[in-house]
Specification:
The structure is a single chain. The chain is an alpha/beta fold. The protein folds into two domains: about 140 residues, Periplasmic binding protein-like II (D-Maltodextrin-Binding Protein, domain 2), CATH 3.40.190; about 120 residues, Periplasmic binding protein-like II (D-Maltodextrin-Binding Protein, domain 2, 3-Layer(aba) Sandwich). The radius of gyration is 20 Å and the shape is globular. About 45% of the residues are buried.
């Protein structure tokens, strides 16, 4: 079955290659961005006549770009909100979701921090400003520096819903605009805590268990990690068969696409 799917997609990709001077504009999530960068690199090598632009401005901005006709594909690390759907329909845009990978919102600390696990409620209390020192959690006597993504981020929306339960963050929480910025802030700050997508974990920061479950391929694929989520590409309607947009949005089903998703640290939807 897998070979049949790959064969069908290669036929569609060949059809794409027969059309010249086409363009794909992709905008949105900084989490999904590395996946689309990888896809775009492969397409650029095989189909040099297709110009692909990938901009990482956040899930909310990607949704707005699709609604306003400024992009062909919106990258989103959350599902579209009801108000975004309403705005799209009012603009004669019909958003269609394509789930391309699975991800986890991973809570990270500086590697020197001895804390290895927190409950979701402890994390919430940190971001509410009720826990302000690591010694309140059995750690060192060190001020907690809480880092969050901005409100246009799909990663923020997932964290805000699954960890915060919709409650507002404390005014003391610092805001950054991307996963790399959150990673850099924790990497350079001994008392920092932040959250990033699975693909942004490395030896320079320490992921911790949430409610006793560590983020990993298996726990995210199974949904046992408490902050797991799908990653999306959104298009205006289902893209025409054989079109560049269709080939791009279904590339995750090919072996090359799955390899790119794995190389970026995410979980292919075909790997359950």
């Amino acid at each position: 079955m897998k070979n049949m799917i790959c064969a069908m997609l290669m036929i569609l990709l060949a059809a794409v290659g027969s059309v010249s001077a086409q363009q794909l504009i992709i905008d949105g999530s900084t989490t999904v961005g590395p996946i689309c960068d990888g896809f775009a690199e492969v397409f650029g090598q095989i189909y040099p006549d297709i110009s692909i632009t990938v901009s990482k401005t956040g899930s909310g901005n990607g949704a707005a770009a699709l609604v306003e006709g400024r992009c062909d594909i919106a990258m989103m690390s959350r599902f579209m909100k009801s108000q975004e759907f309403r705005a799209a329909l009012e603009n004669d845009v019909f958003p269609v979701a394509h789930v391309v990978a699975m991800d986890g919102v991973c809570v990270i600390l500086h590697p020197s921090n001895p804390i290895n696990a927190l409950t979701s409620d402890q994390i919430k209390q940190i971001y509410l400003g009720n826990i302000t020192n690591w010694n309140q959690l059995g750690g060192a006597d060190m001020e907690i520096v809480a880092i969050s993504r901005d409100t246009s981020s799909g990663t923020f929306e997932t964290f805000h819903g699954l960890i915060m339960g919709g409650d507002d963050l404390a005014g003391s929480v610092e805001t950054v605009g991307s996963n790399p910025q959150a990673h850099a802030r924790v990497r350079g700050t001994a008392g920092a805590i932040a959250y990033v997508g699975l693909g942004f974990l490395d030896s320079e920061v320490k992921a911790i268990a949430v409610n006793g479950v560590m983020p990993s391929r298996d726990t995210i694929a199974s949904g046992t990690y408490p902050v797991s989520r799908p990653l999306y590409l959104f298009t205006n309607g289902y893209p025409a068969l054989g079109s560049p947009a269709h080939a791009f949005c279904t590339f995750y089903l090919t072996e090359q696409g799955q390899d790119i998703i794995e190389d970026q640290g995410f979980v292919p939807v075909t790997d359950y």
